[in-house]
Amino acid sequence: MTTFGLPYFLEDTTGRITGSEFVDLHNRMHLSIKQTLRDAHHSAYVIYDHSRSSGASRGLFLPLATLDFGAHNALGTIKVGDGEHIQMGQYLAKSGSSKSRKFRASDGQDYRWTLQADGDWQCTNARSGYHIATYSMKPAGEPQYSGSSGCMLTVEEAYPHLVGELLASLTIMRHIEQHNL
Hints:
globular; 13-stranded antiparallel β-sheet; 13 strands; mainly beta; single chain
């Protein structure tokens, strides 16, 4: 992949955790989170990378991650790529405050999502503190944008291999915050 010296600026089209598109402003990446099931027992979501597909001519997109929440918005399981299903509470372990949790990514490193005072989410390397990603909420008072929520997931350019895990873990964190879990 070409290096531009710029992070990935993934514009969140809806701002909702129940489904959205995340499109890089420089067209380097395009992700989506789709709700695939919702009933009284659980809600299921799949995260896809539309920037690449297996058999591009056939348009087959392989899931980067799947999320399955339990009844009454309870935490359920997450599956990253071809990995095993893991309980969300185990995958995203509490780390300090109730607004901070860490997870071990496929690269073997631990990362921590923390809700900031301004409402933005920040992900850092849990050991070094190095900034990996930020999810910025639309500032209060900003006008409505056509086709955009005004929210942005910014991922440092060195981490495109983790973007599915970052979006999956962020979605769980936002779910925890939204449902006060």
